[in-house]
Amino acid sequence: MTPITEVAGRRLPLSNLDKVIHPATGTTKGEILHYYAITADALLPHLRNRPVSFLRYPDGPGGQLFFTKNPPPGTPSWVRTAPVPHSDDPGARQIVVDDLPSLMWAANLVVEFHTPQWTADAPGVADRMVFDLDPGAPAGIAECRTVALWLRERLAADGLGAYAKTSGSKGLHVLVPIEPTPSGEVSAYARGLAVEGEAALPRLVVHRMPRALRPGKVFVDHSQNAAAKTTAAPYTLRARARPTVSTPVTWEEIAEGRDLAFELGDIAARLDRHGDLLAPLTDPARARPLP
């Protein structure tokens, strides 16, 4: 029998709590739900009012993985959805995770949370910019650190503040709060900085996507600023053998070469120590105009 729990007045069926999702650590679905419950105060501001895309991995990272934007069958009526018109489906809607019951309902599906750089009430008008630093072997996190520090300095020269998190996989994400700007303009600016980075660090940076160009370099992926693209949300678990988390980090941790591999069990202590390092992304007072 599927247990029912009550979350903030909403009744939720939570299934298969003993099922192992991350085999390398034996992490169960119940432990994943507990993780999202205790990090909700930090995570929810980064999801709130943003249409969510899910990468689902209900049988673990070794099972079927599928990306979905449409509300899944059985979505409760109290889970908010928002219109997100697509060229092939003008009536499309997506889930918006605004509160703890919605978060726990979604987490019970076993998902990665991905969001666009814009909110549901202003589609295609970005209030943040992202650079996804993706290393091509043998390059790794050390090379990503160098590129992230260059980007921070370059953005500062344009009056923009930058914040960082791990991708939860191989690389880093550099994020920037900006005044609402059409996604096309943000994409053009971000691409320009990626091109500039390749000119400044030619042995280290590539701004184009073809994998043949990327061995030993860091691909500065600017494309996730396009209105149709999404990025892994802060604090989301990733579909990996180990329960890795896309984790906010300090610039000191990046500059000093500290370990940047964080998992589910590391996050509560980091929140106690640092609070939400990406809180400025949700503070309109921190937003600055693109030059």
From TrEMBL:
A Pfam cross-reference name: LigD_Prim-Pol
Keywords: Ligase
Signal sequence, start to end: none
Residues in coiled coil: none
InterPro entries associated with the record: LigD_pol_dom, MtLigD_Pol-like, NHEJ_LigD
Entry's Gene Ontology molecular function annotations: ligase activity
TM region(s), chain numbering: none
Claim: Ligase is one of the keywords in the record: yes
Highest taxon of source: Bacteria
Residue span, DNA ligase D polymerase domain: 28-277
NCBIfam families: ligD_pol
Protein name: ATP-dependent DNA ligase
